[in-house]
Amino acid sequence: MSIRLSVDIGGTFTDVVLANHNTLTTVKVLTTHVDPAAGVMQGVDEVLQRAGVQAADVSLVLHGTTLATNALIERRGAATALLTTQGHRDALEMAFENRFEQYDVDIDRPRPLVPRHWRIGVPERVAADGSVLLELDERLTMEQVGVLIEQGVDSLAVGFMHSYANPTHEQRVGDLIQKAYPQLTISLSSTVCPEIREFERLSTTVANAYVKPLMSRYLASLGSQLRRRGIAAQVLMMTSGGGLTTLTAAAEFPIRLVESGPAGGAMLAANMARHHQLDRVLSFDMGGTTAKVCLIDQGQPQHSRSFEVDRSYRFKKGSGLPVRIPVIEMVEIGAGGGSIARVDSLSRISVGPESAGSAPGPACYGHGGREATVTDADVVLGKLLPEYFAGGKLALEVFAANGVVHQHVGQPLGLGTQEAAHAIAEIVEDNMASAARAHAAEWGKEVGGRSLIAFGGAAPLHAAQLAGKLKIDHMLVPAGAGVGSAVGFLLAPIKFEVVRSHYARLSELGDAPIEVIFEQMHAEAYAVLAAAGAEDSLVETREAFMRYVGQGYEVAVDVSHVEQYDKATFDALFDAAYAAIYGRTIPSMDVEILSWTLSLEAPTPANTFVLEASSMSGALDLGTSDMFLAGKEIVVEAVPRIQLQQGELRQGPLLVVEEQTTTVVPPGASLEVLHDGTLSIRFGG
Q1: How far apart are alpha carbons 62 and 43 in whole angstroms?
Q2: What is the pLDDT of residues 346-391, one digit of tens each?
Q3: Quick check: 211 and 173 in contact, CB under 8 A?
Q4: Calpha distance 286→331 (Å, rounded)
Q5: pTM of the prediction?
Q6: Is the four-CA dihedral 643, 647, 648, 650 of positive or negative sign?
Q7: Per-domain residue ranges for the chain?
Q8: Helix (H/G/I), strand (E/B), else coil: 164
Q9: CATH 3.30.720.210 applies to domain 3-72+216-257
């Protein structure tokens, strides 16, 4: 695997990285939303030419994308219907029957992906123990499917009651439909999300069905275009859980790709944390559309089995579309370089979540943008050198940036243009700081005292100010920071996780077929890894999701090294896991297990990457920039990152300029170039 391509499609930019052994060549192009593969091919052609590599020499392609996420957010998926147990078709709309905002009388719930007239109740019923209470009415079911086909349905989700305990009815429906209507895309809840809890299982299955035709077409098109370019290498997809999987698995379960780009960034930060022996890290990924923060402790990002897409109500928990998938736990807000700044009726500045995207983009791009964005504010503040942006491929229009910032923010508030730009930056940095604090508090952790790892096209521009707000005194900016998520794909393991719901009380544990369940999950996960060419030295992780009887939420308990499945062993493991979170246990209370997970992971060798000399290497003197910082204008030296040498020490203020991003080193900060090219910045002496 000496020559690898890594591609990350974002809302504004598509990042392409070529790794030739440990040397990186990077390219950033604008995302082509009409045909995302066109932007990918543009970036691939450019990076191959720049690296002097032939297409046939590429041995592996790694890919992450926000296409599934954007389709869900923008409601651009397939015409989807739901077959569910008769009497339960409204479970998808009733959701949790709670209010995520207690005091808003005009609260609006997320609109279901499937309209009510396409949610069909089927005569059948399976009990919680898997026994059949009512046999499936095959004739009526197929008649209803025929009506749905006539009405233009392209994709079908099937989610019957308790199918996680007995999937027979779902599998039978799937077989019948596949035979009668092979053009129809089908998603079965017993394969997409075989877990207890009806609403979340239905929501996940419907979301999978909603994006499955779109993602299947895109992945097939991408594979075809790569082959036409002469790239015959295998393509692996980044998943939300931080692992790589095959195109086949990705096409079958595209819902697992919803956070694939941010997950790559978290893998980069985790790798850096281990490499630099940092126990407590906050990763900060800011691109053109969103900003993401993730807590990394002991070199590992925090994982979860649930996630909400499109939290529409001020990013409040419960206001999004819940899906149960393996995911790296992080918080994401609409605060990127393209996020639009406005002044509301109360004379308050708001930034995002709306973004100018790649078309038309910020006004300074010169592509017709007429809104003030964060990138426009950065240009006004002197943080970006217009003639060297994107390696000189896109000269920024300073006049346009000044115009929109003045018109949309400065003039309404009676501020000068620089003061208005400073206010925009302050708002977006405060939003990110608040999101980071809230995210840490949800998990009983703190952000102060951590090291900040900044990557993404916009993060190094704002990271120093964010660090100050969070009382962080150390920051790292990795090599290739502007395309950090794509670099992270190169560091991710081939991995697949399987889940099964099987209820068992510890007092009755001896009767549970635990080993049989794990053997079945192992076979399913191994098939995916074998298809990806990873069959040796696999690491297996097993978890049981446990709680005290009567509680509403489970605790993940690692049972990977359990040799005997008995009550005493599980009691001890659960007590330790429960106490680590809540600080106490409840003696003499019985414990129950709801679900089991098994993941297989192939080993990934540690990599230290070196950036290839870029087109900016000839720019020996970038001059200075008049930067407006902390309410005053200062003259700042600009230095090409490629010219900084290992062990070199610099004092702020300083702009470190590279093709895909710029790092702001404020006054009073010190910069050191570490052995792997990482920029290490310390604040406050």
Answers
A1: 14
A2: 899 988 778 888 788 899 998 888 999 999 999 999 999 888 887 7
A3: no
A4: 12
A5: 0.88
A6: positive
A7: 3-72+216-257, 77-212, 339-426, 495-601
A8: coil
A9: no
